[in-house]
Design a protein that fits this description.
80% helix; mainly alpha; 241 residues; single chain
């Protein structure tokens, strides 16, 4: 179970490392609104044309970013996790021979997840924060700016804690070893508190609250904005027809 948790945490860490702090040139607010519209339609549609449109948009966004091979590797990993979780969550559909609904759910979940990752990769963390500032939701913007870049460090620390726990596990332990376990748990707890305190200081030191209000809120359409707007309009038409 620990190995599965470690693999999952490492995969999440790879995804976070893949996303740059600064993304491609676009108007974040417009791009984010269109992305949310497209992802929402894809998540609840049963139209294959809509799903195919979302896959096409994801591939275009991946191609526009650098390190295409690395991006594809992350998307394949995401697809594997979505497929596994879908298999577990929707096993009743397979048991009742409702394979069609299972396939529809999996392919639209993959399309929505792929488009979500591609959109965040295109915006970058700073662009995503700027988009929420443009939507007049500064709390979310501040959260992204202050905390998201610390998630990678927190995930690495969690992985180290799991490895430390595995290294300290006793084999064929008896009741007399309970005091040893207590000492080990207390040691890990103290180290966790110290690490949390240092992380809190690091977050406060990197706070840009004074400069956050200076983020530009001008709306100027770019080619990426027009592309996502056309995708959103196309999927709306396909869904309504």
């Amino acid at each position: 179970m620990s190995s599965i948790a470690l693999k999952f945490l490492n995969s999440v860490n790879e995804v976070l490392d893949l996303i740059n702090f600064k993304g491609l040139k676009c108007t974040p607010t417009i791009f984010l609104i269109n992305s949310i519209i497209v992802i929402s339609i894809t998540s609840f549609t049963s139209d294959f044309l809509v799903i195919a449109t979302s896959y096409g948009a994801s591939l275009v966004l991946i191609a526009l970013n650098k390190d295409i091979r690395e991006n594809l590797k992350i998307f394949v990993t995401t697809a594997i996790y979505v497929g596994v979780f879908s298999l577990i969550a929707l096993s009743p559909l397979l048991i009742s021979n409702q394979v069609y609904y299972y396939v529809i759910y999996v392919i639209r979940a993959l399309a929505a997840a792929s488009l979500l990752l591609a959109s965040i990769k295109t915006l970058g963390w700073m662009g995503l924060a700027e988009a929420f500032y443009g939507l007049r939701i500064p709390t979310v913007g501040k959260f992204i700016v202050m905390y998201v870049r610390m998630l990678s460090t927190l995930i690495k620390d969690t992985s180290k804690s799991i490895l430390c726990r595995e290294a300290r596990m006793f084999r064929n332990a008896s009741f007399g070893d309970i005091f040893k376990y207590t000492a080990l748990v207390g040691d890990l707890f103290m180290k966790g508190c110290i690490r949390g305190w240092r992380t809190s200081l690091a977050i406060n030191a990197r706070t840009i609250e004074k400069n956050s209000n200076n983020i530009s809120s001008k709306l100027k359409l770019t080619n990426l904005d027009l592309f996502m707007t056309s995708i959103a309009f196309t999927e709306l038409v396909l869904q309504l027809v």
